[in-house]
Amino acid sequence: MTMANRDSGYLSRPAPSGLADVIEVILDKGLVIDAYVRVSLVGIELLTIDARIVIASVDTYLRFAEATNRLDLYEHGGKDLPELFNAMQEGGAKHKTKGALSGVKEKFSDAVNSGDDGSNGGGRSRNGSRRTASAGSRRRREDSDE
Amino acid sequence: MSAPTVADDVLVVFGIVGSSIDATMVPDGVEIVPHETIAAVVAGSSAVHGPAAQLRRHDEVVNTVVARGITMLPMRFGTAVTNRDDLVREVLEPNLAAYDAALADLAGFVQYTVRVGYVEDAVVAAVLRDDPRAAALREATRRRGGGQGAQISLGKAVADAIERRRPHDIERIAAMLRPASARLVTHPSEQSDRLADFACLVHGDDAQAFEAELERLAEHHHQAVVMALLGPLAPYDFVPEL
After folding, report:
1. Most Cβ neighbours (<10 Å): which of B26, B126, B164, B179?
2. CB–CB contact B197 A24 (8 Å)
3. What is the pTM of this model?
């Protein structure tokens, strides 16, 4: 039942057969068993995953610079910025916004898994090493000397 | 059983389920290894070659079980053991109580992963409105014409400003998803135009309502963000760390 692509309206429903989608959903998630019981699965190398990690680069910067040249639509075309981006401006002082946010966080802290704290980006590697953290795959990576 | 070794034919473990599962509920070539109240879903590794095929196989097996309405604790991709005896003795038996408790905790729940990215033009416009440094750089670049060096500085300022505002925007979206989710885990993206993947735990009875709510949110915010919905999936982000 999860196989069909069911795009409707503005919400895309990619079929899970796309390898990129599968990788990002599955990788480094799920139950882990003791390392001494594990054996390496032949042929599992995560080089394809590394290729998907996009680090902020010159290309990215040039793309954003390019995007600033398309802004006339918002500045002179009478188009309002989407509602989602409004709070920062309305909030005025930054600490005020922050306060409101942490209030929300406290309120929901019981219901929310601790992983949610990751939303501040703290402690997360930018170079993608997080994605190759599973023991078997790291071993393979080191062996392959990529 | 010493340190991990590479074997030609090992037992791939896809996940842990309750012992009520039977062989008709799993794809061909996949076997059940029962132990008391739980069972492991496994298959020999020799039939499938290469990382891409292994990954698809893992996804396919887990999805097939989940699609049958069976609650499964999915194993991390790539998990394998040498044989059935080791599986029972070293994995199922020592973790019996913990797996039982997790299966009870997650009974009837599925995971949806909501992948959210920025609409690039819109977030760049928001950055230039809110970030004085990026706005000033843009003005300077515009006045001086600006070679590639200036363009890169401008683009970097915009990228940095997006980086700074991302936690705020992620939190706003998380706040929208929380009321529809039993639990929520956020994985901020490492890609500059993306926001985050939000893993939402949803009871099967609420799945339709959740999907409808996601469609509503995606439409309402389509000028700011692009949303994709993956699932229903096994609860990858909600298994216990043992």
Report:
1. B126
2. yes
3. 0.75
